[in-house]
Amino acid sequence: MKHKLVETEKPNLLEDTFPHTTVPLIKFDGPIYEEINGQLIKFDPQELKSRPLWISDTTFRDGQQARPPYTPEQIRDIYRLLGKLSGPNGVINQSEFFLYSKSDQKAVELCLAENQKYPEVTGWIRGLQDDINYLKMMKSMGIKETGLLTSCSDYHIFIKLRKDRRKIFDEYMSMVDAALELGIRPRCHLEDVTRADIYGFVVPFVEALMEKSEGLPEELKIKIRLCDTMGFGVNYPGVELPRSVPKLVYVMTREAGVPSERLEWHGHNDFHRVLVNGATAWLYGCGILNSTLFGIGERTGNPPLEGAVIEYAALKHTFNGMNPRVITELAEYFEKIGVPIPDNYPFVGKNFNTTRAGIHADGLRKDERVYNIFDTEKLLGRPPKVLITDKSGTPGVLKWVNDFLGLKGSEQLKLSKITKIARWVHDQYNVHGRTTAISEAELEEQIRIHLPEEYRKWRERTGKKA
Q1: Contact call for residues 396 and 422 (beta carbons, < 8 A)
Q2: By C-alpha distance, which of 309, 362, 277, 365 is closest to 57?
Q3: Does 276 lie in the same domain as 364?
Q4: Which of 11, 247, 262, 365 has a 20 to 30 Å separation from 1 between CA atoms?
Q5: Residue 210 to residues 7, 196, 264, 339: CA-CA distances in angstroms?
Q6: Cα–Cα dist 69/77, whole Å
Q7: pLDDT tens-digit series, residues 384-443
Q8: Domain ends where: 306, 336, 366?
Q9: CA dihedral (356, 362, 368, 371) positive or negative
Q10: Dist. CA 78–CA 121, nearest whole Å
């Protein structure tokens, strides 16, 4: 079959998918099918539209394991910003905290004192008798839910914990009972589930937890977290258990009886699959995606929370009350307290929407949509930028000068006005052998010399001193 060229008077910019005023929208042609045990697993895009999705946070738990500890005051400040990002509908619904040190406990007290509805403060302990006193501490602090580390692979049960399946099963259940007796909802973390015996241990354990939940009030019904501890999870069709993300979610929701709203995915990025695996879990029926700010977490890190926010909007076609501009505020705060963010890190890096290429700068100059992923100024408070190097060319210099002077539309300068500045940049590299980028101060000086009238107007408009 051959296809003929279709000529058109107006460009087809596919604006239903790439609206630019918001994030690119993910659309599906129809259902997607996967097979397990002779049964079809169906992902239905129509069902996704109506099913609630949430983002949970572990910046102060898993995130704390990858860096020097935050101060309690820093945790409170970040927690405030998380509430601002989450918005009134609580899409970012919970944040979990360690309680092991005095500093951990003070941070929890400071966050609880904020009286924020979202994200809810929750605890985290091991599902072992050694940690039972921390349950009592949570009760006294008013914490209503805690994570329980219930490692489920034989790597952990036999090798790390030096026990057998029956002993660890019973100990976990005992800790669940202890939490319930104190009126604290258990959230059982199935550590290393992508390397576990699913039908030999995981499903019987989860079925017992769901049976125990029957008759409990809604606020105490047990939650399940699927922990891809080593990043072994895979989202490709046809992958076998325990590594298949769709099949794991299917087994939990359809065979073990875990409701979507009580099932959570927690991943790691050892194989660069962390966010796509989390989103896949969402698609196939998992209600909650666990994440950390900027992906900072044990070893290779967790799903980046800011990435989850953008992915949520792409899948649901709405931010549902979240304020994505707070992502930039969080990045600025992290830099302020000495947590470095790579310059090219998506959405928040110093240069994530900065181009050095002349042909890209020329496209940006003609229409931002050509080389900017979405309206980053509107959504993130970050307009696209040009960094001047030997690759920028005259179009790049022109874009930079117009941006610096704040000139838009018909006010923008033409190429002929900046030829002397472009020649100066050219000579820096081709005559003087420069190997570093041109600084803003250097370019401002060239504007002052070669565009004195435009420079004067810029100073008057901005109140800048010469």
Answers
A1: no
A2: 309
A3: no
A4: 11
A5: 59, 19, 15, 41
A6: 14
A7: 887 788 888 888 899 889 888 988 888 999 989 999 999 999 999 899 998 888 888 899
A8: 336
A9: negative
A10: 13
Burial class (CB in 10 A: 0-12, 13-18, 19+), 300: middle
CATH of the domain at 323: 3.20.20.70
Q: Specify whether 408 is located in the same domain as 311.
A: no
Phi and psi torsions of 122, nearest 5°: -130, 160
Asked if 259 and 404 sit in the same domain, the reply is: no
Q: Is residue 213 part of a domain?
A: yes
Give domain status of residue 23, yes or no.
no
Q: What is the mean pLDDT of the chain?
A: 93
Which residues are paired to 343 by β-bridges?
none
Predicted local confidence at residue 439, as pLDDT: 85
Region 361-379: what's the mean pLDDT? 79
Give the C-alpha separation, 282 to 300, whole Å: 21
DSSP 131: G
Q: Which of 205, 281, 295, 276 is nearest to 246 (CA)?
A: 281
List the structure tokens of 184. 């604290």
Q: Is the pLDDT of residue 361 over 70?
A: no
Torsion region of 165: left, alpha or beta (phi above 0 gives left; psi -120 to 50 gives alpha): alpha
Task: Look at residue 24 and tell me if it is in a domain.
Answer: no
**438/366 same-domain check:** yes
Residues facing 42 on adjacent strands: 33
pLDDT at 251: 97
- Record the pTM: 0.90
Query: Does residue 430 share a domain with residue 312?
Result: no
Clarify whether residues 245 and 387 are in a common domain.
no
For residue 105, give both structure tokens.
């406990």
Q: Mark whether 324 and 441 lie in a shared domain.
A: no
Amino acid (1-letter code) at residue 296: I
Task: Provide the phi-psi class of 393: left if phi over 0, else alpha when psi is between -120 and 50, else beta.
Answer: left
Q: Which two tokens stand for residue 299?
A: 């070893």
Domain span at 105: 32-336
Could you give the number of structural domains in the chain? 2
User: Is 335 a residue whose pLDDT tops 60?
Assistant: yes
Range list of H helices, 273-392:
274-283, 305-316, 325-336, 358-366, 376-380
pLDDT at 44 over 60: yes
Q: Which residue, of 295, 310, 336, is where some domain finishes?
A: 336
Element (H, E) at 188: strand 185-190
As a whole number of angstroms, the distance between CA 221 and CA 29 comes to 36
**Does residue 349 form part of some domain?**
no
DSSP per position, 260-305: GGGEEEEE--TTS-HHHHHHHHHHTT--EEEEBGGG--STT---BH
The contacts of residue 185 (CB under 8 Å, 6+ apart) are: 144, 145, 146, 179, 219, 220, 221, 222, 223
